Amino acid sequence: MKKDQLKLKGTIPIIVGMCFMLAPLDLEFLWPEIGTLLDFFGFVLITAGLYLLHRETGGFTLSIMTAMVCSTASFIMLWEEIGHLVALLPKAAFCLLLYLMCTNYAKYANKASDHHMSHHFITHMWIDIIATSVELTSHAMGIHGLPSYIFLLIDLYCEAMLMLHMWRFYKKYNGFHLEDSVYAE
């Protein structure tokens, strides 16, 4: 079935989920699992948003599966004591999720004949993946203190820019008829 209209309501739960997942709360003195719980809720919201996008517009199948892996891993980490390096796996899988999700957004931006927006999705995706990878590497190597906070701030900035771009795409193209594009098929 060919989808002729972009319905992007799933973008909002994705953005909210990314905010939950990236919340830099250091409340471990109150509840040690707060970071993992926020990651879990964030990944569940991202999964739900991707499912809505898939159901309404199509695509996003691999993104949904990757988000489900991230959600499941975060849920398991709530109940099982695991090592420090294994705890980084959901966020490492998030890099794959970013790739799959952003390439789908770029595909729909191209279908709407907005190649500039498509280029921004791909560019922000790669910058965000590199920033997340650097942050994960710093955690894996045990780099703490000022360098880890700098890497975290850079990653948060890159995520914020990607979420802002997703919001702009949602505001501009939610409900857009693809036959209205310059290159309608």
Q: In what range is the share of β-strand residues?
A: under 5%
Question: How many helix segments?
Answer: 6
- Assembly context of the chains: single chain
Specify the overall morphology: globular
**What is the CA-CA span between the terminal residues?**
14 Å
Secondary structure: number of strands:
0
Rounded mean pLDDT score: 83
Residues in helices, as a percent range:
over 70%
C-alpha Rg, in Å? Answer: 17 Å
Helix and strand sequence: HHHHHH
Derived from helix and strand composition plus strand pairing, the structural class reads: mainly alpha
Stretches with pLDDT under 50, minimum 5 residues: none
Largest sheet: none
Structural topology:
Elements: H1 11-22, H2 34-57, H3 61-79, H4 89-111, H5 115-140, H6 146-173
Helix pairs in contact: 1-2, 1-6, 2-3, 3-4, 4-5, 5-6
Structure description:
By secondary structure, the chain is mainly α. 71% of the residues lie in helices and 0% in strands. The protein has six helices and no strands. It has helices spanning 11-22, 34-57, 61-79, 89-111, 115-140, 146-173. Helix 3 (61-79) runs antiparallel to helix 4 (89-111). The radius of gyration is 17 Å and the shape is globular.
Features:
185 residues; 6 helices; mainly alpha
Q: Care to give the gist of this entry?
A:
The chain has 185 residues and is mainly α.
